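User:
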Amino acid sequence: MKREIIVTADGSSTIHIPEWNEQYHSKYGAIQEANHVFIKNGLSLFSTDVISILEIGFGTGLNSFITFLESEKRDITIDYVGVEAYPILTKEIEQLNYVSVLKANNFNTVFAKMHEQKWEIKNKISTKFSLTKRKQFFNKITDENCYNLIYFDAFGARVQPELWTEAIFKIMYKALKKGGVLVTYSAKGSVRRAMQSVGFVVERLAGPPGKREMLRATKKQFI
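Assistant: Predicted structure:
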């Protein structure tokens, strides 16, 4: 499918798919959405020195990059795994402006390194941040009891409903450690019910710009 780079409301770029009328990030602000959903309502919950994260939809690398910046700011160690079935192209990566909008020019080479590194291999991005990119369909994930936090950033249920089912959330539930958390921009009732059906405790939270609500799901401490 055709993909094109667009600029969102906060000045940061994302990829638009005209055929679906769908973006990789919110048109109301790619960076604002990522910070609100995944950092403020996800990563900020954890005060431990070492945090393991699974990202569903590595895409542009934005979520990975802002998480790296948080690891530097907070002096925490993060083991990050990003799963993506259809990696974006080098020419698309070169048009993304996250480094400049985030005023993170000191880490310009880090963003490039995240995209240049080989798939399926764990790489040390810094002393505090390791990244493993896996080229994989989400329904083929078999990890169990591995992660503190999941960033669920798949394309929306309107265009890919098969990614928002009980079957997928059962895989997510197994992948999390007890007490682990999944955060997503979605607030659909069908998504919330699918999460609850596999055992998650689900909260509705205030959404990022352009969205009224989002969801946070927690795996019970005692099962």
